[in-house]
Specification:
Glycerol-3-phosphate (1)-acyltransferase, globular, 242 residues, 7-stranded mixed beta sheet, alpha/beta, single chain, 7 helices
Length: 242
Amino acid sequence: MTEEIPGFPERFPVRDDGKRSWRYKAVSLTCRATLRGFFGRGLQLDRMSKIPAEGPLLVVCNHLSNIDPWIFGGFGPGVLYCLSKRELFKPAIIAWILAGCNCFPIDRGAADRRALRTALDILSRRGRLLIFLEGTRSTTPGMRRAEAGVGFLARRSGASILPIGVWGTEAALPRGRKFPKRVPIGLRIGRPFALPERVPGERRDDQAVADLIGSRIAELLPPAYRGVYASLEEPAATPRVG
């Protein structure tokens, strides 16, 4: 990882005492102030205090826009780690900043064993790891099918899973748009859960586990955002945020 990405430090995480680095604090303040200042009351987020303070915890969210990580960076409580696509870690100064914010790279084009080992190590130390379920931004509001790697991490780590649904960010900053526009953005946090011994109707393999997590996220979203997970046995009402 460090040999291949200029600027990424040899020691990761930068701090392992459960506290934020100064880079983390600065970026978090910037994200929070920017989002609140731009979107104002249109930013309708569930109480972030719902996120458990201790791990091991997989925080799993659908992905619609580049704004999504800013929400967690600005409003996520305590220390979160995040798997981020490798392409973000350029130039070297960006890699240095992201590492200070507990972000580490994953190569989406291959089975990145190093990134998976880092993720499992974080969870084994009772960390809280943020993952975007589909591995990339959805091209439409509807969810894409979950990446099997999410199921692998859930199954191998035994961590609790916290589903989170976000909507509206795809309209705020669509693909190809350089500047955001003011639209309502919502985020709803579900209940943490542990994996059952068997996933109903499926083998307990990585994709089945990932799909189970995807269905839990879909329950938190308005119907138009559920995509491939729209066929829920008990469709939830459009969520309200508080």
